[in-house]
Input
Amino acid sequence: MTVIQQEDLITSVADALQYISYYHPPDFVQALHRAYEQEQSPAARDALGQILLNSRLCAEGHRPVCQDTGIVVAFVEVGMEVRWNGAMDLEAMINEGVRRAYTHPDNPLRASIVTDPAGTRRNTGDNTPAVIHTRLVAGNKLKIALAAKGGGSENKARLAMLNPSDDIKDWVLRTLPELGAGWCPPGIIGLGIGGTAEKAVLLAKQSLLEPVDIQQLRARGPANALEELRLELYEAINALGIGAQGLGGITTVVDVKILDYPTHAASKPVALIPNCAATRHIHFTLDGSGPAELPQPRLADWPEVNWSPGKTSRRIDLDTLDPTEVRQWRPGETLLLSGRLLTGRDAAHKRLVDLLAQGKPLPEGLDFRGRFIYYVGPVDAVGDEVIGPAGPTTATRMDKFTEPLLAKTGLLGMIGKAERGPQAIEAIKKHGAVYLIATGGAAYLVARSIREARVLAFPELGMEAIHEFVVQDMPVTVAVDSRGQSIHELGPRQWRLKLQQAR
Output
């Protein structure tokens, strides 16, 4: 009989979540490096270089690869011969491990979980509770797979109840371009097929925990229909030309994973969930002998990528910038920003727009005239850091706030990740503003360009408070220029045509 100690499980969960916050899975790093070496699009290759350098820096410094340190998902298999020594139930033990991991003093992880999601949306403060799926299985061991799933990719999950005669590949190829770049490609697409609606979604999530092995599959060839579908989708998705960060390029996914389950004769549930460039997951087993021993990767396993800002990047002084200079920027141009910028995301934007609508003044000291706002919710600083990892969040969530802020505050531009929708692009064009992107999945690298940071407004919002950053040579790309031209439309279109012509 195996006896699992309560503290062993708690410690194992906490250690594993810390581990995946700064260590990419080696198979994923190798897949990204292969994509980097093969990429022909300069913009996409630059983004991949930043992601790979960021990954190595995080492995060295034990700091999160992304500021969004995710919602914890646990798949737990409990052997029926397992016994427990402890007073807490299984979910309470796992959540205590989550709490310890996310409040660790040496590497605090961002608390992103809110309770009362349809109402007050109050942050729980320690990233609990986790989403836990438990199965009783034969045996005398406890097996756990943990993932920390970022909101940008999780928000792009899709479910379709197809007719039995509908083609799955056609549905995926129609659906994927509609997701935009908010899921931070390149990554992995997980598909769940069959069962019921909830089973298909669960299968899609589980599939993302499997190793990256598409190149091995390509080499040996498919052994069944699902493997054949994986290969077809891998080729077809990359042929869309979406590319890293949606900038246009030859690699959008590094793998496609599929799990299936028997379903009703009248049904064909299909779920799609993308995993982003901050892929984080780990498996461990407890057998009663103590906490899990996690494999210690060697830094030699990370490729040497000597990324640096391109020689053609334009240096911009944010403190002296005027609208005339902004109107000269064009989509795809790379910039290095220095000077002062403001931050803000969903909760802060809603408060700002509500104040403007009521004719009330903005908080004292908050002036957007001629300034840029960076869509970010940073991780807390440790040691001598100015700020923790501070990568961009998905900009489309701020689209509905863009017109009132540009119209009523004198805001000059915005920085985020992924594309902007028609509503925001029209506002940008109308007001002669601009939208820039920083690389999603390079949060620690971006944070190194931040020289000072202070909270200016709404401190009670925690990571969503408005900060003022002083940055030096912060790397960004022009995504939407003052004429309303978008790199997320131009780039993929250009590379899709190139890939079609190359066939």
